[in-house]
Amino acid sequence: MLNYDEPEKLNCETDVIKAGKYYSTILTDFMSDIPAISHIFNQLLHHPDLDPDGYCLEIYINDTDVQLLVKLI
What is the pTM of this model? Predict the structure, then answer.
């Protein structure tokens, strides 16, 4: 369940994810191959429409799967 006051309780910074198009993939069972996250981001960063002011984003879907995204122009 999403808890909107959790960052404040944990003394964490927050940011807003920019709206727009993203190029992404889902890595299943990421704990079995954590270095795969870096390798996948290296592939995603070669997209021809990559936003030069964008960022890499990880969304942890559950305990085993993560969605990896890069912002497009």
Answer: 0.83
